[in-house]
Design brief:
alpha/beta; Rossmann fold; 387 residues; 19% strand; four-stranded parallel beta sheet; 41% helix; single chain
């Protein structure tokens, strides 16, 4: 199986769905008799920094699985389509995966996309696996939608509780991006922090396309909180923190796993010191496979991945799909979405190489330890583990 090359990345596939035609970047083994599944992720647009690395991790996993004989001798075939993290494009790509490519299961991410394509999964009875999106609403999207990634009420709740109980911060300000992830994550942080005994002294939203945050930050400066929690994206987080410091706000900043990215430190320099982030995947000191994974990135890409925990989950995605196919084959069932869902509920417990044990709950949720890290001397270092 070859890596995604420039020609493949630039190839445009017309998706004639109504009057809509969108670009789609395709990476597929395409061999007859292979076991197909879909991967709908942003390979272009504002979230491509994350999406491209997540896709690369999934490609490595497929190659690694197939190099060891695939699933009982049958090769995995991952069909990759670009969503640009846009709900409408997500609908187009998933319509193609289900109606043209006829996949029984697909992986996707970004909360707005996961929500937008859920009706397709339920209508067509195709299993949708959300890997990396964190809106709590994902657990309520229907019988065919499951997450393999803990939702925001896991890590954001742990962070808010730790901030009050262990760090001793009694007042907090919350600044959040006005999208599904931001709104839901901010709401959870506020609720948990107040329940612990803290007080939210400022609660401000900003537009998804904003580049200027002075208005909201001036309100935070007047409120003078003990800590500032930002529920944003990797693309806007450095700008928000930089403008905070320019306005003289020196409070410590926390955020969720989107902030666990070397680009944040690169862009902010010393302004990143003290930043607290969450991770829902074990680090290299917790799992020896992760250390080898990071070295693989350094050797092949000459850098560490953008959003390490997310790439770990995306690497594990094909392994989970392989386990589903193995169950279906063992039970001599056709590879349909209905049977992939039966496999997920029957297997239930998975042992995955990068993120470890995974138990899929009947409530469509999963739970994992929460790893807190902080920036010290220009690098992320462990702060606490909350189980």
């Amino acid at each position: 199986m070859s890596k995604m090359n420039r020609r493949q990345m630039l190839k445009l596939s017309a998706l004639a769905l109504g009057a809509t035609t969108v670009p789609s970047y395709v990476w597929s083994q395409g061999k007859a008799g292979s076991l197909k599944f879909g991967l709908a992720m942003p390979l272009s647009g504002s979230q491509a920094l994350y999406g491209a690395d997540q896709v690369k991790a999934a490609q490595w996993a497929v190659s690694d699985i197939n190099a060891k004989g695939g699933v009982d001798g049958q090769m995995l075939d991952m069909i990759v389509l670009d969503t640009q993290a846009d709900p409408q494009l997500g609908i187009s790509t998933v319509n193609r995966l289900t109606s043209v490519d006829k996949v029984p299961v697909f992986i996707t991410a970004w909360s707005a996309v996961v929500k937008a394509v859920a009706p397709i999964a339920n209508r067509e009875k195709v299993l949708e696996l959300s890997v990396g999106a964190n809106s709590p609403e994902i657990a309520k999207l229907g019988d065919y939608v499951y997450t393999t990634f803990p939702l925001a009420d896991v890590d954001v709740s742990a962070l808010a509780t730790y901030t009050y109980n262990t760090l001793g911060k009694k007042t907090a300000a919350v600044l959040y991006i006005n999208n599904d992830s931001g709104v839901e994550g901010a709401r959870i942080y506020k609720s948990v922090f107040e329940k612990a005994g803290g007080k939210i002294v400022a609660y401000e939203a900003y537009d998804t396309k904003a580049t200027e945050f002075t208005g909201a930050l001036l309100k935070l400066r007047v409120a003078n909180p003990d800590i500032v929690h930002i529920q944003g994206l990797v693309s806007d987080l450095p700008q928000v923190i930089a403008q905070m410091r320019q306005l003289g706000l020196k409070q410590r900043v926390s955020t969720y796993s989107a902030g666990y990215n070397p680009k944040v430190i690169e862009q902010l320099g010393t302004a990143a010191e003290g930043l607290i982030v969450t991770s829902l995947a074990p680090g290299e000191n917790d799992n020896p496979n992760v250390a080898a994974f990071i070295e693989r990135w350094k050797k092949t890409e000459h850098r560490v991945p953008n959003g390490l925990p997310y790439t770990q989950y995306l690497y594990d995605g094909p392994y989970l799909v392989a386990d589903l196919y193995k169950w279906v084959k063992k039970n001599k069932l056709p590879a349909t979405g209905e049977n992939m869902r039966k496999a997920l509920l029957a297997v239930k417990t998975f042992d995955l190489p990068m993120t470890g044990g995974l138990v899929v709950g009947e409530d469509h949720r999963v739970k994992k330890p929460v790893y807190l890290l902080t920036v010290k001397d220009g690098r992320f270092v462990p702060l606490a583990t909350i189980k």
